[in-house]
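task queued by scheduler; priority normal; single chain, no ligands, no partner chains; default sampling; output format set to structure tokens
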Amino acid sequence: MRSRYKIHDPDATYFLTATIIEWIPALNGPDERQILTDALAHCRQEKALRLHAYVLMDNHLHLLATAPDLSGVLQSFKRFTARKLMNHFRERGKTWLLNQLSYHKKDYKTESDHQFWQEGSHPKQSTAKPCSTKK
């Protein structure tokens, strides 16, 4: 199901959530978390992502972020990290996890054997004002 939540203002800061399909706890190791933090760093350097804060948990992550094309950045981030994590799980022989990601994949997702991220990011525009560092 497509989300009714949209990113309307490219200059605004949004609170976003990226959740693993069926809340499967797949981000519980340092290698998996490093893949995500490296990808976020890349998005900051190459895709104009302004990352104000983030929290990684074992089955989802939260971001407070701004970007001229925030939807595109998040889509690219999720696509890249899904592929990278799938390869990581294959290399480590985590077939039980791959089986779960395959079992819970949406039927219309025909381009791959697995689905890592749930669709959407439930963006909520932040009403908080940025902190000033000026005195």
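post-processing summary
- The chain has a mean pLDDT of 90.
- The radius of gyration is 16 Å.
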